[in-house]
Structures are given as structure tokens and as C-alpha cells.
Design brief:
The chain has 383 residues and is an alpha/beta fold. 26% of the residues lie in helices and 28% in strands. It has helices at residues 18-29, 67-84, 103-114, 124-130, 153-166, 210-213, 290-303, 352-364, 379-382, and strands at 2-3, 9-14, 34-37, 54-56, 89-91, 94-98, 120-123, 141-145, 149-151, 170-172, 177-182, 188-192, 195-204, 222-231, 246-250, 255-259, 267-271, 277-278, 311-321, 328-331, 338-342. The longest helix is centred in the N-terminal third of the chain and has 18 residues, at 67-84.
């Protein structure tokens, strides 16, 4: 192994996906000398930040406390769109629907009310009539919030990386990190397969591989195999972005989420926790199966029957789940020069623009003004 022939960096970012690319961008924007290391291509389809579309929604049923972070994320996405000249966020409106008392409907309405968000409460018949692609059961109710939509994750990553590079950051793809160690002077050393780098600070945004980088988190980070699918609709005009809002809809056993037709000629749908397969990300099967397809077709038939045409595409990705489904955004408990972003539990990409800013705060100030107390590492010990 050789030591890299360059000066010590201010910060190294391990993982240049959704969170890491944003961290590299914000660190470079603050004038730091940044090195970003990604084990795969940039962008790539081996982790969590791909698939052509990821939901963004303000009517957040998970908890109202997420809404201020989301509002900051929207501001960051707007600024990145202007800078990059790319359309990153497609506004379609969002729907959160479920039977009476269901947490998806009730939680979304609560978030809208607590934060005074523009929204409408619709009956099932009103929802199905306004958006004919929907076919939810008669007893369902829905929250429609007009600012929801979807992000294009690959374009978001490229925009963040290009912005980081324009500010002097060095980004290396196909550079797996083997290990990192704290240095006696308060910095860090990072080892790849062939080189060793040093920096004052480190950001770990390694997705499903974070547990191998931070053994303390390995027991509470569970990588999960997820499959999403695209299906040809019978009436394509009903599922265009201007007539079909993104959705999260309750089912008998979980929830489904989906998108209008975009790039791929089909409606995209996923089922949260799919087949509940905890996996090793290096060993998991990345080939979708007929069983995976059936898991998606069953709820499609039940709630969006006009979209249940021939399969256009199936794709495997990863969730990295925490026991409480909340994120991990914190500094390392023993090494404050190391900031960590992990465990986004299938609902994190939309936040990546602001998470990058938070990671830059934690790197430069060891603190942030953003509300992240719920994402501290030590909560697992408390729980």
C-alpha cells in the first residue's frame, strides 16, 4: 500500500451516493479541501439512491417533526436546480391514503395541520374521480398536498458531484475503502485497496455498508433487499405526471408507494419492506424473480387496476433500516471528527440535500442548528 502523494485533506467523504454527494458539495462550498471515495460508479445502481424517481412529500405521515427538515431540503433542491440547470424535482402533488384511523392518512393530516401546509382531505370517491388512475376502496380517506412530487436521484447525485468538483473537490469512483482509523493528532486515516489518505475529518455515508465501517452501529443497521417495478398502464394519460400524484397508500399488511410514468414506459410501484429479506449487501441476489413481481402486482391489481398491464422493468435496491425507522445523523460517539449518516429506512433520499448541509455543520462545527436530536446514535442505548 502506498501513501497518496498529496497534502492532507480537510475532509474525506466515504460513499458518494445521495447523502455523500451532498456532503461533498456542502463541504466544498464552505471552502474545505474534500476527497470523496465511492466503491462503485457515480451514480450507480448497487445501493439505495437510484431507480429514476424518489418521492418527496411535505405531508409526512411518519411524524410532523420531519417537516422543518423537509422544508429546508426543498430550499436546497431549488438552489441546486438553479445552479446545475437540471430539473431535479418534478412536482405532481402527493397522496397519502388509508382506511379510517390508519397512520398514513392520520399522520399526513397531522403534519399538514401542525405546520399549516396547504392540503385537501378527500374521500375515496373524490380521490378516484379527481385522479382516475386511483381505485382505492370506498372507506379510504386521503390527504392531497400539492407540493409533493419526485426527485430524479441519479441527476441529483450528478448535480451535487459536479458542484463539488467545481469547488475543487476530488471525487474518485471505483475506490473501495477497506478501513479507517483515528489519528493521535485528532485526524483520520482512510485506507483503500491501494492507498492511504489522511484528513482532519471524515464523513461516513456508506449506506448498507455503514455497519462494516462503524461496528458500534452494526447491530442496529439492517440492510434489506427491496424490489420496485414498472408496469404498463391501460390508459397512459391517467398516469402522466400532470394527472397522477405520487402516493403512499395503506394496504392490509403494510404500505405501497408509487409514481407516475417517467422515463420508463410504466407506472412505478414499490411495497415497503417488500419480502422482509434482511441481507448482506455483498451477497444478496440482485436479480428480481417472479415472486418479487407478484408481491408488486397484487397491490397494483387492488388499488391501481388500470396500471396493472405488462411488466416493463423490475429493479433491486437496498433499504438500511433502524429499529425505530428513524435516521442516524450524528458524530461518532468516541471520535467527534467523524460524522455519520446512515439507516435511512427507505424514506431518506428526499432529505439528502439538507443532510449534506447538516454533515458539513457536524464536520466544521461539531453541531448544527437543524433539528436532529431524534437521530442521535446514543438513543439505541437509551431505548
Amino acid at each position: 500500500m502506498t501513501t497518496a502523494n498529496n497534502d492532507r485533506y480537510d475532509a474525506i467523504v466515504v460513499g458518494v451516493g445521495g447523502m455523500g454527494s451532498a456532503a461533498a458539495y456542502h463541504l466544498a462550498d464552505r471552502g474545505l479541501d474534500v476527497l470523496g471515495l465511492e466503491r462503485y460508479d457515480i451514480p450507480h445502481a448497487q445501493g439505495s439512491s437510484h431507480g429514476g424517481s424518489r418521492i418527496i412529500r411535505l405531508a409526512y405521515h411518519e411524524h410532523p417533526s420531519y417537516v422543518p427538515l423537509l422544508q429546508s431540503a426543498y430550499d436546497e433542491w431549488d438552489a441546486l436546480e438553479i445552479e446545475s440547470g437540471r430539473t431535479l424535482l418534478h412536482e405532481t402533488g402527493s397522496v397519502a391514503a388509508g382506511p379510517p384511523g390508519d397512520e398514513i392518512f392520520e399522520g399526513a393530516r397531522r403534519s399538514c395541520r401542525e405546520h399549516d401546509l396547504e392540503h385537501e382531505v378527500l374521500s375515496a370517491s373524490e380521490l378516484n374521480e379527481r385522479f382516475p388512475g386511483y381505485d382505492v376502496p370506498a372507506d379510504y380517506r386521503a390527504v392531497f398536498q400539492p407540493e409533493g412530487g419526485f426527485l430524479v436521484p441519479e441527476d441529483c447525485i450528478v448535480a451535487h458531484v459536479e458542484g463539488a468538483q467545481a469547488r475543487g473537490a476530488e471525487i474518485r469512483a471505483r475506490t473501495p475503502v477497506r478501513d479507517w482509523t483515528p489519528l493521535d493528532d485528532g485526524g483520520v486515516a482512510v485506507e483503500t485497496e491501494t492507498e492511504r489518505f489522511e484528513a482532519d475529518s471524515l464523513v461516513l455515508a456508506a449506506g448498507a455498508w455503514t455497519g462494516t465501517m462503524v461496528p458500534e452501529l452494526d447491530p442496529v443497521l439492517t440492510p434489506e433487499r427491496q424490489v420496485v417495478g414498472w408496469f404498463q398502464p391501460d390508459s397512459p394519460d391517467r398516469f402522466a405526471p400532470d394527472s397522477f400524484p405520487v402516493f403512499v397508500v395503506a394496504t392490509d399488511d403494510t404500505e405501497i408507494y408509487g409514481f407516475p410514468v417517467h422515463d420508463t414506459p410504466g407506472v412505478k410501484i414499490g411495497k415497503y419492506n417488500h419480502r422482509k429479506q434482511a441481507v448482506d449487501p455483498d451477497e444478496m441476489s440482485r436479480t428480481p424473480t417472479p415472486t418479487d413481481e407478484r408481491v408488486l402486482r397484487d397491490p397494483l391489481d387492488a388499488y391501481f387496476a388500470d396500471a396493472a398491464g405488462p411488466t416493463m422493468r423490475l429493479e433491486t435496491c437496498l433499504f438500511t433500516n433502524t429499529p425505530d425507522s428513524r435516521f442516524v445523523i450524528d458524530t461518532h460517539p468516541d471520535h467527534p471528527q467523524v460524522a455519520i449518516a446512515a439507516g435511512f429506512s427507505g424514506h431518506g433520499f428526499k432529505f439528502s440535500s439538507v443532510v449534506g448541509s447538516i454533515l458539513a455543520d457536524l464536520t466544521t462545527e461539531r453541531a448544527t442548528d437543524h433539528p436532529i436530536d431524534a437521530f442521535e446514535i446514543d438513543r439505541f442505548e437509551r431505548d
